[in-house]
Amino acid sequence: MRTERLRHVTVVSPDAAAARQTFVDLFGLGPAGPGALAIGTARIEFVTPAAGTRLGDALAAAGEGMAEICLQVADLDAAAATLAQAGVGFTRAEGALHVDPPAAHGVRLALVAAA
Amino acid sequence: MLSRIHHVGIVVRNLEQAYGFWRDTLGLPVHKVATVKDQDVRAALLTVGESEIELLQPLSDASGIGKFLAKRGEGLHHLCFATDDVGAELAGARAKSARLIDQKPRPGLAGMICFLHPASTRGVLVEYAEPYPPGHPGLPGEEPA
Fold first, then answer.
1. Nearest to A1 among B5, B26, B74 (CB)
2. pTM above threshold 0.90
3. N or C: which end of chain A has fewer CB within 10 A?
4. What's the gap in Å between the CA of B21 and the closest CA on chain A?
5. CA-based Rg of chain B, rounded to a whole angstrom?
């Protein structure tokens, strides 16, 4: 698998806009589209997830904080094949591979291809 | 000035086992490995683009990372921003009344580092790192990657 870069980190919060503003005020980060801030070639995305969703479960279990990371791969189909060959569980949805957290040492990890 | 995400810290039970996924399956090369004695942790940095993944294995249950592992299990631990002046970042955070974990920068695997308390950063444990200059011997306890 060719993993190219850290694409984004997701912060979950009951108030995503307020969380985003905290990072603007404290770290001086600039906007990178709705609900996100830019830092180098990566972004920090701020989300208020719905209950019962992947990220909603993270918010319910651990509270406000960093809940997911997303890495960009060169070829999503090749990445899926590599995961399958390695016996790593994942689901494919919304243009991303979501690795089963136990296989990624407890990390909610998404893999996406370059836009 | 913050320039990039230096790394994302991930707590794991066993570094060698974790390599099986992060290095061998995802293809991330191990850039640096060290035993950080004052933290009682063994750590590895794996390169991904301009950032890194830092895998942290506690060497005792009493260490901060050991307590995290016991309480929350393996998973995401902290987010580190790269800066060219860690002292200035720390002073800036203090001036904005952010709660600090470190009152002054200290040597770490990623460079001179300091942590902010997650109470001030929306539950995210944030680290600043000013990477060592080229030629710097690095942290005592560094091993060949």
1. B26
2. yes
3. C
4. 7
5. 15
